[in-house]
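From the pipeline queue, job 12 of 40. The input is one protein chain; the requested action is below.

Action: predict structure.
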Amino acid sequence: FGLYWLWHVFRLAVDLREYSEMKYFFNVQLDIRESDISAVSWSEVVRRTVKIQDRIRLCVVKDKLTVHDIINRTMRKENYLIALLNKDLLDLRIPLPFLRETQLLTKSVEWNLYFAVLDAMFDDDMCLRRSFVENPAALRRRFFVLGIINFILAPFLVVFVLIYFVLKNAEKFHRDPSQIGARGWSPIWLWRFREFNELPHAFERRIARSYKFANLYLRQFPNKLHDITINFFIFIIGSFAAVLIVLGFVNEALLSITIGDRNLWWYIALFGTILALSRGLVARDTEISVSRATR
């Protein structure tokens, strides 16, 4: 966590100048104040940017600046990544038996692709570096160095990701235990679904609308063996929890008995947590019926 925070502090110090220039551009050139930024749409920002081309010449190679020019510049790196994944130019298969046909794109792999390929591909003016094209050995060295760094940091990254996942989702799972079994698009398919020049906020809105219908489709094919296994597990854990609760009603002092250095109150809390999380893994009959009714 210390390295994580130090890295972000370093990045903040490096980016402060760009943030200052961005603030000046919005406040002075686009006439958009901080108090108005949350209410101004992206289309309005683009419209004002196109309008000031005649005055301050944002683009020196063209007389007229278009919306396409702005979006193409903004999405240049992402467009290359979309193309690499759509054309299967990246071998992301897992080199393990029975998993060789499974492709995996994690956030750490995505970061490595940015560091080794996309960030090195373009200069500060977002133009393709000739050295990147003419020197494949440099790309090979970057991948080798990143491989060593990832190997060294792997144990720490696993712990960090687990802690981050718990801190990020604990309240959500407590509020809605069914979220523990919620399905989502894998990162590699999110990139493949994405259109060229599709901005993040537009893509997030589009993909959010797909979850409802994707879940309705999947609920038409329930996994009975999975549900039976989880329901049996819930029955066993629920039986233990019920016995402990009855003992507490009969004689509260019994709950102070320790088993394995833990009293029975601790086991009640543990069984209750497991039950709440397990119920989110079972499809409700009403959901299956509604899904089939929509066929």
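Job complete. The two ends are 49 Å apart (CA to CA).
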